[in-house]
Amino acid sequence: MKSVKLLLIVLTFIALFTDYSLAQDTTQSISSKIDLLLADAFNKNIFSGIVSVAQNGKVIYYMPMGYADWQSKRPFTQNTLFNIGSLNKQFTEEMIHQLVKEHKVFYDDKLSSYLTLFTLGIGDKITIRQLLDMSAGLGDYLMDPQFRKIRDKDFSLADLIGIIENEPLLFEPGKDNRYSNSGYVVLGAVIEKVTGKSYEDNLRERIVEPLGLKNVYYSKSEKVKQIDRAFGTMIDFEGNKKSIDDISNSTPAGGIYSTVEDLLKFAEAKRYSKLPSGKKYGLGSFAGGTLLWNCTITFNEQTGYSYVIVANVGKIADELVPRIGSIIANESYPP
Fold first, then answer.
1. What is the pLDDT of residue 22?
2. DSSP 306
3. Is the pTM of this model over 0.70?
């Protein structure tokens, strides 16, 4: 009987050791392949930033490559701030879901129930749900000449609403779908109206504090104070890099500064369905960027993997996302 128990103990130990060894081999293989992928992009002068990969909540890969400022060769740190672009639309969406959970907002409510920025003929046709899924017919305030006049100034959410309310609809609400920065600014205004607090205060109370985020900066004045921030990078056809410190005010549609660590926490909260709203995602990939920036979060509940790419170079994070996904799935990918 003792020999049987001893045999079971030995077999269990062997199984555990084998599983551990396989996990170590898998992690090492993933890390080596991502190293090669990033080296390829870096050597082609199209990547500068940080990649972090977690499995079941544990960081298994972290790699900074390039510089926060290419002129001074200032290196990245774990606390380096990046412009996350439209990724903060995910913050705005989460806050709306929280307000729905609190019965303060309803998805199929008319926009005119909260704001009178449009005539009733238009405001009665647009719903909160349509603003969320970008089927409301609103366009992009970033392309409006009036916004370009105030872009570098200390503009307010009210200033943006003043621009958006004068823009014509691109299509009848609910009849089409078009990417819309304006729609998420309007959602930000709804959040302020319903709560009686600023978007920035809501961001802190509803996202930053509940998730334990450490470095999230909304206003231009707060961003300027942060020394450890990356500068956006312009690259010419010869591969020469010019760093541009293009700080401006954030909006509910984009422009917040944050770190790879905080973005990974947010991605993990989505993967675990532990956001304050209780909204369940399971898996997803979201991106934000400009000509000078590109940041992404990707997560998958079934595989247990989450990864974040923050880049102070435009477009490259979007290209790396599916390739890193292929590496994790042990599949081939294009160079």
1. 39
2. E
3. yes
Nearest to 333 by CA among 62, 49, 63, 38: 38
The number of CA neighbours under 13 Å toward the Cβ of 196 is: 1
* Residues 207, 210: Cα–Cα separation, whole Å: 6
Alpha carbon of 207 to those of 27, 118, 134, 149, 265: distances in Å?
31, 29, 22, 31, 11
Continuous segment of H or E residues that includes residue 40: helix 2-43
Q: Which two tokens stand for residue 111?
A: 């926009």
Q: Which of 296, 288, 297, 295 is nearest to 269 (CA)?
A: 297
pLDDT, tens digit (0-9, with 9 covering 90-100), for 118-162: 877 888 899 999 999 999 999 999 999 999 999 888 899 999 999
Which of 310, 311, 307 lies closest to 322 in space, CA to CA? 307
CA atoms within 13 A on the CB side of 197: 11
Short-list 262, 254, 229, CA closest to 244: 229
Amino acid sitting at position 167: E
64-83 pLDDT, tens digit per residue, is 999 999 999 999 999 999 99
User: By C-alpha distance, which of 122, 126, 81, 79 is closest to 107?
Assistant: 126
Helix ranges restricted to H, 84-198: 89-101, 120-123, 128-132, 145-150, 157-164, 181-195
Q: What is the mean pLDDT of residues 222-226?
A: 96
Place of tokens 């294009």: 334
Bridge-based pairing state of the strands 241-244 and 232-235:
antiparallel
In this structure, what is the dihedral angle of CA atoms 170, 175, 178, 183, given to the nearest 10 degrees?
70
Residue 293 in contact with residue 299, Cβ under 8 Å?
no
How far from the centroid of its chain's Cα atoms is residue 92's Cα? 11
Query: Is residue 254 within 8 Å of 181, Cβ to Cβ?
Result: yes
Using an 8 Å Cβ cutoff, are 148 and 215 in contact? no
